[in-house]
Amino acid sequence: MVRKTSKVILLFIFVIYPLNNLFSQDYSINGYKDFIGNEKFNEKKFDQLYIGNFLSSIFALKNGDYVNSLKYSRLSLDSKFESLELLENAFNSNIYLGKVENALKIVANIELLSNDIDQTFLYPTISEQLKRNDLPSALDVSNNLGIEKHDIFITKMINIWNYVVLGDKEKALMHLDSFSNENELNPEIIYYLKVQGLVISSYFNDSEEINHRYNILKKDIRKIPSRHFIDIFKVVYEKVDKQEAKEILITNLPKNLDLNLSIQTLKDNERPEIQYFLAKIFYEAGYIVARSQGLLNSIPFFWYALHIDKNNDQSKLILASFFSNVDQIDISLEILNEKTIKSPSWIIIEFEKSYLYEQKGNINLAISLIENFVENENFASKALMRISNIHRRNGDYENSLKIINSIDDSIINTPEIHYYRSLNLVLLKRWAEAINSFKVLLEVYPENPEVSNFVGYTLVDRNIRLEEGINLIKYAVSKEPKNGFYLDSLGWAFFKLEQYSKAIVYLERAIEFEPQEMEITDHLGDAYFKVGRLKEAKLVWKRALTLNGSSEIQENIERKLINNF
């Protein structure tokens, strides 16, 4: 608590107070220049202003507000450009929004102020050189990187592709095989390296080498990440066996990718631009960093991949997902709406865009994007389920149920249909139909904690088949003992059995894990009330009213407070 208070005080002293006059009048850079150029402001106030912008930028960056972080970093630089600390902050603000060109300019200014350049500032230069197909320069700079896994990976892969560009097949494959041997037990990159061996062999049209490397890959085809499939089977289609390439792709391609477009990609006679493969160096480096240092630290690498090749849809999806998770929906949509060459991932992109538009409250657009897939037999059921769920999440349970019932589950075996059908029936309070639907639901999901809790809680809440309901909830809790919702269900089950002391134990634990849930808090208030702990019941119910929940639960709590206190 002390640290949080200190941050707020600092923010007020250095940010809000000195910037109040500025931002109440003009948010533009020109307005800022006019403000600081006014003679009535002395040097002390000027220093407060740049410090305020600097702290605002850092504060925004640490809280995932990347747009404002960039905005305030620009303002702070405009007032004190020669500061290394400000330049470094501006670099981070630009990189996390994919402004690689701006980052390069900032790096140039950092180099003027310091001879000791952190390797973080080398990545934009390397990515720009790879974008320009200047591999010798990129290799020269990458040799200054450190000894982290991803740095070694970047340097060695640039070196290997440099040999490819120079036409030296022997050295390219020799260095690749040596690096592969070093990483034979490293699942993070070994399959990428093996696929690169196949791709490089195809560059030199070496049939013997292609067949040798493909036969090795074919043995492990089910272990290879699907992001490598197009690269593998394009080589197989062009150099080995067209029919075999199509058959294996049809068998192994993930269902959320466009199979027809994938096959068309195989038939495309044009070899991918070299930037396609160079971008994947940074993409795979991003994977390495994400596993070792977390997703946040990996984000710049996916931006570098996209800088090298704007058609790298895999990077787009990761970046869009990241910004969506930090509530930067507009940035996610900007990334996904960027016009590029259509890839097999385009369907995933459209579904993700639909989800983002729904988050923004544009329900009609969210639905219209998915309706395009209803007539496609490969995606019809998934599209209908997505549209049904959009209606359900926005309170239109009748329409949601109607769409779910339109899916022919005798043709397409999709277990989720049964779950969403039961869920909608419960939400519509069509209890007889809902309870009848549970038999099929439990058959298709016999050992699923979420389904067991859902069915068990509904039975207990309706005060029927209590023993069966409790056993289902106990199973869910045994699988996920720290799940607050499952603990709440078990506590509520004991409440229904009038075992209030037991109920309180589980409900109190549930609130420890889910302190912001109105319904769980309401349940604990009910249990306290039943055992005569009236002051605690009143306090808990009042707190429940401050939390997010349905209007129905809120009105019920208000009635209990009025009637009992």
Overall description:
This protein is mostly helical. It folds into 3 domains: about 1-115, Alpha Horseshoe (Serine Threonine Protein Phosphatase 5, Tetratricopeptide repeat), CATH 1.25.40; about 130-325, Serine Threonine Protein Phosphatase 5, Tetratricopeptide repeat; about 445-565, Tetratricopeptide repeat domain (Serine Threonine Protein Phosphatase 5, Tetratricopeptide repeat). It is built from 32 helices and no strands. It has helices at about 1-25, 30-35, 45-60, 65-80, 85-95, 100-115, 125-130, 135-140, 150-165, 170-180, 190-205, 205-220, 230-240, 240-250, 260-265, 275-295, 295-310, 315-325, 330-335, 345-360, 365-370, 380-395, 395-405, 415-425, 430-445, 450-460, 465-480, 485-495, 500-515, 520-530, 535-545, 550-565. The protein starts with a helix and ends with a helix.
In the CATH scheme, the class of the largest domain would be Mainly Alpha
Helix content: over 70%
How many domains?
3
Sheet bearing the most strands, described? Answer: none
**Unreliable residue runs:** 1-47
- The coarse overall form would be globular
Structural class, from helix and strand content?
A: mainly alpha
The CATH architecture name of the largest domain reads Alpha Horseshoe
- CATH topology heading of the largest domain: Serine Threonine Protein Phosphatase 5, Tetratricopeptide repeat
- The count of DSSP E runs of length 2 or more, i.e. the number of strands, is 0
